[in-house]
Amino acid sequence: MEYRILQEYLSSRKRNIIPEKGFKLASVLIPLTENGRIYILLTKRAKHLSNHPGEISFPGGRVDISDNNRLDTALRELEEEVGIPRQEVTVIGALDDAISITDFHIIPYVGIIPFFCPYNYNRSEIDEIVLTPLAFFLNEPKREVYEKGNIKKDNLIYTYGDKKIFGLTAFLLKKLVEILDESGFLKENRELIF
Going by DSSP bridges, is the β-strand pair 90-94/38-45 parallel, antiparallel, or unpaired? Predict the structure, then answer.
C-alpha cells in the first residue's frame, strides 16, 4: 500500500479544529491494513459498555491522565482494545476534529496497521473485529434523519452484511473516503482497492 501521498496531503491541508472547552476529550485511530486488498479495521463495542454499546466504531476512547497527547490516546486505546502495539502503527495524520452526539470531542487519526488475523482483541471491551474492504465505503451511505429528544440531525448509514455502521463512525468514513480521493490515494492504490 502506497500511503506517502496521503501523508503529504494530510500534513499540508488545514484541519478543521473545534475548541475543546465543554467537551469530553477522546481520540480514535482509523486503521488501514492490507492483505491483497486494503481494509479498514472497525470494532463492535461490547454490549455492556456505557457509551455506544454494541455499535460499530473505530478503536479509541477517552483521554487518560497518563496520555501525553491526543495521538497517544488513540495509540493506547488501539493497543488496549485490539492488541496492536503502538510501535507497529505508522501514523499518517489526522482528519478534522469531530463532536459525537454524546459530547465527546474527537480527533481521528489515520494509521497503517499490520494484518494480524485473527486479532487478539480485548473481549471485555470489544465483541468482534469487523475488517471491511475499503472499496465498500466508496458506495454512498444511506441518509436518514436522527431524532432524540431535542436533537435532530442527518445520519449516514452503511450496512455491511449484518453490520450497521452509523453516526460519527459513518461520518468519519465518508470524510476519509473524500480525503483519500482528493489526495490521490485511491488512484495510487487502485489495484488494492478495486
Answer: unpaired
